[in-house]
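Hey,

Quick one before I head out. I ran the complex with D-malate overnight. Inputs first:
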Amino acid sequence: MHYMPTTPSQPTDKSDDLDFIHRYIQPQDRHDNSALTLLLLHGTGGNEDDLLPLGRELDPHAGLLSPRGKILEAGRIPRFFRRLAEGVFDIEDLTIRTFELAGFVEKASKRYEFDLDKVVAVGYSNGANIAASMLLLKPQTLSGAILFRAMVPLVPENLPDLSDKRIFLSSGLRDPIATKQEAERLYGLFKRAHAMVDLQWQNSGHELTQADIHTAKQWLTMNNKKQL
Ligand code: MLT
């Protein structure tokens, strides 16, 4: 499924102190202390508009924070970190970019006054991979994550304690990029880190389907009640 950009409710922000081009859309009720912030992380070649409709559909009450990846592959294809080849990541760059993105989320929470303890990443493909990296390297940035078509981004020397993190993996049985084996490896890594992780298989390839959205929404509704 391809998401078309919505009409933005706020202009894209390019200001220097929040050093990612991004959009921020306030929660429906600004005074709702229980509202989540969904950190929307697009796939390779995407931008800050791509996942806004998905975020709104997953949680109509949440604030939406959607940065654009800073890496330009071949000078024009946005990504969140460098890769050496398809599925072969530049780990040094990934590490730097992960901390940079975590710093952006912290600064954004001050600027837009959202609760840093209620941030849930929603990532697709390259965006899911940097969200997984954030859980492994800077877990305090996220209380949970929905990861569509994710791979193992890196294996840290010391596994963090993720026992308070809720993670939903939605993976394609026929995905040639984020393969079944990769998804199982990531699930195993999160399990070893004691995360509360669910892996849902979709009868699909790398593309996002309506079933992904349906099951992710169910998961989010259920887990939000359990205190995401
Ligand atoms: C990545 O580079 O993060 C993965 O290979 C997925 C992709 O973006 O194609």
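The longest strand covers residues 166-172.

Talk tomorrow,
K.
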